[in-house]
Amino acid sequence: MTRSLTRTLLAPALLAVAIAPLALFASAAPGEGKQQGGSEEHRQQHEQRRQALFERAGIDDETRQALEEARREHREAVRELREEHRQRMDEILDEEQREALEAARQELREEQRAERREAMQQRLTALVDSWGLSDADREALREAREAIYADMQALREGDFDSRQERREAMRALREEHQAALAEILSDEQLEEMRALLSRHGQPGKGRDGRKGKDGTD
Asked: Which region among 38-42, 99-103, 112-116, 210-214 has the lowest average model confidence (pLDDT)?
């Protein structure tokens, strides 16, 4: 009975502990890195990958310029189509219908998030059960979860002079969290947890996980 109760208490704690270092980047700075395809650093890295690909494929400068022009034309065409679609929807739906549609969309998103959280929680619970942790280690994980939540909340509410300063604070906090987990879990257990998380929701890809026609993201 005690083990069952401990497991019930641990399940949400383990989920929070496991995903906090990854979720930190998504939740600490809402909107950061999402506008216009990502941060400046991400765009630079993306362009470097494209140029390296072209170089390896032997694509000359003239062809590269033609590809870049085609990409610009495509982006502009997509923007125009989206605007036309939005205007058309405004003509079809009245304000009450638009509000109802948006509310339904938000409800659906929340339901999908809840389903994903539940599925992840079940996988993590099964994983930690396979480790056979002692009650003391389980309690340590729960305490780590509380500390991580408090640190994340403080970071969200903090004021930073620049995005760089915020990124550095996030990086330092992630390292602290990983160090805290390393005091409780073995290297093998940490690797198993990372492997589980990496199989579900890898960052850095589009919605369908596919790459662009020129072979880049």
From this structure: 210-214
Tokens 């390292």 -> residue? 175
Q: Are 45 and 178 in contact (CB under 8 A)?
A: no
Please, which residues have CB within 8 angstroms of residue 135's CB and are 6 or more apart in sequence?
2, 3, 6
Contacts of residue 2, defined as CB under 8 A and 6 or more positions apart, other chains included, come to 135
Which residues, 6+ apart, have CB-to-CB distance to 14 below 8 Å?
121, 124, 125, 128, 141, 145
Token code pair at residue 186: 């073995």
User: Count of alpha carbons within 13 Å of 84, Cβ hemisphere only?
Assistant: 6
Task: Output phi, psi for 207, to 5 deg.
Answer: -65, -35
User: Measured between alpha carbons, how far is 201 from 189 in angstroms, rounded to an integer?
Assistant: 20
Alpha helices in the chain (DSSP H): 2-27, 40-57, 61-92, 95-131, 135-157, 163-182, 187-198
Distance CA 100, CA 3 (A): 46
Residue range 17-74, pLDDT digits in tens: 544 444 443 344 444 444 444 467 778 888 889 899 999 999 999 999 999 999 999 9
Angle (nearest 5°) at CA 5 between 178 and 198 = 30
The DSSP output letter for 170 is H
What secondary structure letter does DSSP report for 200? S
Q: Is this prediction's pTM over 0.70?
A: no
